[in-house]
Amino acid sequence: MNGSDLFGSALRVTGLIVSLCGLDWLVRFSMGQLGYFTLERTDITFYLIMGVLQSAVGLYLMRGAPHFVRYAYHEETDIEGTNENSSSD
Question: Looking at the 3D structure of the chain, how many domains does it have?
């Protein structure tokens, strides 16, 4: 395994943890809607928003976060029309 594969695996594990935290927020939202607890200062929709956002970010990270991996590990690609070994005579 090279560095980008290890980085992608670390992102997937992080995504799993973030998704589980988002699921926890969604469970708390549903429990609040069912009346298991009441909040004095926090609106119940805060739990819904946090749950959806964390779940979405976690799912993106679990897919491997290709944008982050490409940014962290630039792969040298040849651009058509350029050749380092050619002379311009």
Answer: 1
pTM exceeds 0.85, yes or no: no
Residue 21 lies in a domain: yes
Q: At which residue do the structure tokens 């992102």 appear?
A: 11
Mean pLDDT of the chain: 82
What's residue 2's pLDDT? 83
Within-domain flag for 55? yes
- The structure tokens 């490409």 sit at 70
Helix (H) or strand (E) holding 16, with range, is: helix 3-34
Determine the 3-state secondary structure of 2 from DSSP. coil
SS3 1: coil
Alpha-carbon span 33 to 60, nearest angstrom: 27
Q: For a pLDDT cut of 70, what percent of the chain falls above it?
A: 83
Write out the residue range of the structural domain in which residue 67 sits: 16-72
